[in-house]
Amino acid sequence: MVHDDDRIAVAASRALVVGGGSIGMRHQTVLRGLELDVALVSRRPGVGDFTDEMKAISVHNPDYVVVATEAHDHPEALNRLAAAGYRGSVLVEKPVADRPIALQVDGFRWVGVGYNLRFHPAVDLLRQALAKETVLSAQIRVGQHLSDWRPGRDYRETVTAGPSGGALLELSHELDLLAWLTGPIEVERGWAIRTGSLDIELDDLAICVFRLTDGGLASVEMNLLDRWPTRRMTVSTDIAIYEMDLLVGSLYRSGELVDCWSVDRNETFAAMHRAALSDGVGVCTVDEAISVVQQVAELRDGGRDG
Q: Are strands 64-67 and 14-18 parallel, antiparallel or unpaired?
């Protein structure tokens, strides 16, 4: 839900969304819901207000930009914004890049990365609880058949099926959430495979094992194959066991329901943008996002032991 005081806080801002795909259009919708003056850059005919960043920066003069192009283009999109003379705040969609790379971000006022699930109320409450306990183990499972991701579109023509996609990059929310909830993580082992069930270029199934900050272990399954979508996390601590289902919106502690939320997907995006437009607290940092991309590279290489 967007509150009146949130609108007042950002009413005078102008935003620019770079990228006219499905995620760019979502950001545009959410930002307009926050009553920002939003323009769109897209190279697709008839989609955006501008076809390049240079003209968009000059004419629209935004103080907030969202980069929502394909992951392999994110570093170049930042360079194009800098070349256009933009120096304001930037939110880059996740993943921040398709490979580990040094990003040129020093010229901007602030840069964050769009891992919006950090702003789900169940995640927030779980993070508060885990901060007071020792995490012993965690299990995460996320999956949905790729053909169901974007109804009405041939999945083979989407970014997920191409060289910047695959399960590990497209579902990297789970890697970010694991570190956000339990502290920095280290890759132990990983297996990322293309099962052949889908006509895509990269992995559609990944099984990963991580070392946790408190010394325990976490296992993560990420897939583009499940015929019934799942997004669950179980965390065992020295005091309790937590079960979080982000599709249902529920959080349990040792079998007892803590709370259940009905959260529209756009609400987590709106909360993330409100944070980015204020003090940036809670938004994924560039360093944290690059760590996720580095972990993806390690996992595709088999993990620490190869």
A: parallel
CA neighbor of 76 nearest in space, from 103, 39, 49: 103
CATH topology of domain 4-116: Rossmann fold (3.40.50)
| pTM of the predicted model over 0.85 | yes
Does this chain's domain 4-116 share its CATH topology with 121-262?
no
pLDDT digits (tens, 9 = 90+) for 251-267: 999 999 999 999 999 99
What would the DSSP string read from start to end of 105-173? -TTSSEEEEE-GGGGSHHHHHHHHHHTTS-EEEEEEEEE--GGGTSTTS-GGGSGGGSTT-SHHHHTTH
Using CA atoms, how far apart are residues 172 and 139, in angstroms rounded to an integer?
Answer: 15
Q: What is the CATH number of domain 121-262?
A: 3.30.360.10
Token pair belonging to 303: 């993990």
Domain locations along the chain = 4-116, 121-262
User: Alpha carbon 21 to chain centroid distance?
Assistant: 16
SS3 content of the chain, % helix, strand, coil (to 5): 35, 25, 40
Question: pLDDT by residue (tens digit) across 31-55?
Answer: 999 999 999 999 888 899 999 999 9
